[in-house]
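Practice problem 4.
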């Protein structure tokens, strides 16, 4: 019997319609570091995580059979601390909470989440395991 390969998620793709607006949002709300990649950008998050970004002037070839469009992503991010702090953080940046806090199950087990949207309408989630 062979061992399972050591696989972990390296990056995912989000599509945006406006570089300046999205760079500001992901930097201020998610704490991302916008990194120039060719004619476009990527968002570095934490230690070794990254969002690749398809946007104006960047087609991201190769891509999915049905490429992600601005507003077409659904992504969850871990919030380190109580979910109420995530709600306050979003409020401080003028970002409306669409749903939550609500109980959810994530990769590390049970947690609580709040849902909100990026400027293009992609659904984003902060999940806290601090329950």
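Answer key:
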């Amino acid at each position: 019997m062979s061992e399972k390969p050591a696989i972990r998620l390296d990056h995912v793709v989000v599509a945006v319609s406006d570089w300046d607006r999205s760079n500001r949002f992901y930097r201020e709300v998610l704490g991302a570091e916008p990194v120039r990649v060719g004619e476009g950008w990527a968002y570095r998050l934490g230690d070794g995580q990254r969002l690749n970004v398809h946007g104006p002037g960047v087609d991201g070839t190769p891509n999915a059979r049905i490429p992600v469009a601005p507003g077409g992503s659904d992504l969850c991010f871990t919030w380190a601390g109580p979910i109420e702090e995530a709600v306050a953080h979003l409020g401080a940046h003028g970002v409306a909470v669409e749903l939550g806090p609500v109980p959810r199950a994530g990769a590390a087990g049970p947690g609580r989440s709040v849902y909100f949207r990026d400027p293009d309408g992609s659904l984003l989630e902060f999940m806290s395991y601090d329950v």
